[in-house]
Q: What sequence folds into this?
């Protein structure tokens, strides 16, 4: 039988090294390893650790893209070291050198190991990541509609690797933001019909000044996720549930700003900056607007200095939205299953589930009429 193995090839790994306890500044450390091109970056790191420097710090476990332990940045992009082939990493490298560094938005423990407890797991616990059972509990199992569980299978696919947290621009600006991983986990329970406190969960996330309305729709978490969870899409689902199903509205400036933006474009076709800010506070004549506008004077001053807003634009803005713009808005508003007005915000049409097949393997069992059986104790408290 012919040997189909690819020949061994040399690769240069440039590892970001840092030990906070040493008192030294971070530095880069290069090693040349020899492996088949289809081998993973993790295997390359472990070879460098085994052959050249046993002090290299790296976290890993399953080596099969299941446990999420080996999250790092490869050539500036977050990913799983065990799931990224060396030849693929080489193609995205600069100068033929594969750079590996720790994930962002989390403190570094040593080299490529970050403190997940300090940021990631702390925020996961913040959203109460377990079912709050309805009372009284059924004598046997819960019967759950199959479509309800398929709805949450995307969020259930999360392996808690922290890649989305690493690349979240909102967390970079505001470390108190709950973050994409925790909010995706929150939807896993908000979307579960067995949960007894869906409204309370949504109200909490809507009223939190660092909650679900702090997402800026940058799509970085969608690009970063190795398992197709699409955290931003789960955040948009939370918002739909809050506003559409539970009428939890007008809770913070993030929500009001989003609504004002949609209204502004629908009315003008182009963004009218002079109206956007007061409308985000409820309108020029809303009691809330005056103190909020006064507090926003620094931002208003910057806008004037940069000519984003001028007196002429503010007073003489006569532009009206073209008919086709309004037609698109009206069409979406009148859909039986209403999507976000700005489809780019939600990232996909709910009807096609983002073009991805739901992870049906995560749904086990079945009952009559398409119902799925779930034992009352199937979601142990505290398990994430």
A:
């Amino acid at each position: 039988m012919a040997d189909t193995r690819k020949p061994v090839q040399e690769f240069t790994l440039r590892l970001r090294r840092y030990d906070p306890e040493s008192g030294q500044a971070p530095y880069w450390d290069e090693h040349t390893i020899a492996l088949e091109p289809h081998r993973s970056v993790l295997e390359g790191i472990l070879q460098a650790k085994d052959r050249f420097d046993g002090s290299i710090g790296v976290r890993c476990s399953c080596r099969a893209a299941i446990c999420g332990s080996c999250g790092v940045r490869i050539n500036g992009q977050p990913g799983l070291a065990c799931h990224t082939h060396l030849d693929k990493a080489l193609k995205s490298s600069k100068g033929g050198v594969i750079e590996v560094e720790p994930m962002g938005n989390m403190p570094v423990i040593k080299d490529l190991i970050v403190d997940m407890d300090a940021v990631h797991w702390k925020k996961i616990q913040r959203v109460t990541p377990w079912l709050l059972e309805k009372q009284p509990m059924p004598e046997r199992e819960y019967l759950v509609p199959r479509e309800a569980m398929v709805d949450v299978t995307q969020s259930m696919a999360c392996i808690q690797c922290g890649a989305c947290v690493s690349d979240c621009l909102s967390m970079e600006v505001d470390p108190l933001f709950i973050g994409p991983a925790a909010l995706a986990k929150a939807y896993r329970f908000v979307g579960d019909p067995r949960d007894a406190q869906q409204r309370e969960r949504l109200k909490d996330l809507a009223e939190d000044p660092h909650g679900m309305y702090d997402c800026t729709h940058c799509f970085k978490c969608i690009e970063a996720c190795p398992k197709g969870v699409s955290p931003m899409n789960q955040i948009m689902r939370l918002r739909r549930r809050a506003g559409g199903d539970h009428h939890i509205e007008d809770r913070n400036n993030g929500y009001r700003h989003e609504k004002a933006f949609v209204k502004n474009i629908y009315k003008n076709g182009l963004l009218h900056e002079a109206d956007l800010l007061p409308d985000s506070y409820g309108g020029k004549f809303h009691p809330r607007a005056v103190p909020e506008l006064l507090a926003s004077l620094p931002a208003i001053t910057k806008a004037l200095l940069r000519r984003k807003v001028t007196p002429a634009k503010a007073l003489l803005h006569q532009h009206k939205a073209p008919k086709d713009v309004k037609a698109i808005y009206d069409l979406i508003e009148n859909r039986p299953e209403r999507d976000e007005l700005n489809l780019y915000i939600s990232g996909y049409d709910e009807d096609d589930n983002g073009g991805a097949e739901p992870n049906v393997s995560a749904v086990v069992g079945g009952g009559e009429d398409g119902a799925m059986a779930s034992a009352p104790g199937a979601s142990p408290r505290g398990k994430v």
